[in-house]
């Protein structure tokens, strides 16, 4: 009688390491489509250890993307193969587990490091790649002439996309608001249901995707598209 619960527990734990045939098919296709960008062993755990392997979250693969085209390719394959997907902008800080997926595929945005400062009408617009860490953003803004800054958080290793799409509360929020308040546009990979395809769109407050910009400004990353 005492042995049975232990046997059942061992069986349940082993299930967390199984990968479905659909996910395996997706991994094989991803390796072919994005050579050198798919990791199946030694996958880095998320910063938030509540969602690491010791707690039953064992991703089957991680895909490193370098462009919007890579993101679209990865999402198309996972969608067609019905493989579970999670998006990770950098280290995996999500406190609700959005940065990982058990038995599924993580799309990692770490290599998207674009940074550009554009003067516009007496102010500066900064274009940021989703894979930048908060410390990288602060450092580059500080080195700009003139030095710049923005209302961000205090976690240096947090990814900028996760921070802003989650609201972005920080030490200066009482005076300057949330990080998401400063977003004026976003490039987002979304699923176009009418045309049955993934596509890149630019959402601003004044175009046909204004509702999407409203959604991603604090609506949590991964719910509406890939930033």
From TrEMBL:
Keywords: FAD, Flavoprotein, Oxidoreductase, Signal. InterPro entries: FAD-bd_PCMH (IPR016166), FAD-bd_PCMH-like_sf (IPR036318), FAD-bd_PCMH_sub2 (IPR016169), FAD-linked_Oxidoreductase (IPR050416), Oxid_FAD_bind_N (IPR006094). Its cofactor is FAD. Residues 55-227 form the FAD-binding PCMH-type domain. Residues 1-21 form the signal peptide. SUPFAM superfamilies: FAD-binding/transporter-associated domain-like (SSF56176). It comes from the Eukaryota. GO terms for molecular function: FAD binding; oxidoreductase activity. Belongs to the oxygen-dependent FAD-linked oxidoreductase family. This is FAD-binding PCMH-type domain-containing protein. It comes from Perkinsus olseni (Perkinsus atlanticus). The lineage of its organism: Eukaryota, Sar, Alveolata, Perkinsozoa, Perkinsea.
